[in-house]
Amino acid sequence: MHDLYYKGRIHTRVNHVKTGYNNKRMVKLGTEKKPLALVVNSEARKLEVEALVADNELYADITVDSSVDENINELNAILNKPVTTTFDKTPNRNDACPCDSGKKYKKCCGK
User: Fold this and answer.
1) Which residue, among 80, 26, 32, has the nearest Cα to 59 in the 3D structure?
2) Which residues pair with 64 in a beta bridge?
3) Which of 6, 26, 38, 55 has an alpha carbon within 20 to 30 A of 62's alpha carbon?
4) Domain ranges of the chain
């Protein structure tokens, strides 16, 4: 169909092709395709980090280099993800009060 058929609007097929689904997503860090790049100072520390990586089912390329500072920031970022805080729903006015006083919420704690 011609673009003039849509009275000046962008052809829907062309628009979908340009802004369609993203099939080329980035690979997640810590997987087989994109392992963590970690640098440690000693063999003993390498064994500790390998155990930590294995416990969390991650993949990492660990190099031992005593002349460079230790760099395990990628591992720390994955292990210490922020947790979403959730709050309990406040009860309705006529529900029983959560403090177990036996009164309705509107007469006890909902003042």
Assistant:
1) 32
2) 40
3) 26
4) 25-83
User: pTM of the entire structure?
Assistant: 0.54
Query: Encoding tokens for residue 36?
Result: 């963590």
C-alpha–C-alpha distance, residues 52 and 108, integer Å: 50
User: Mind listing the pLDDT tens digit for each residue in 44-62?
Assistant: 999 999 999 999 999 999 9
SS (H, E, C) the chain: CCHHHHCCCCCHHHHHHHCCCCCCCCCCCCCCCCCEEEEECCHHHHHHHHHHHHHCCCCEEEEECCCCCCECHHHHHHHCCCCCCCCCCCCCCCCECCCCCCCECCCCCCC
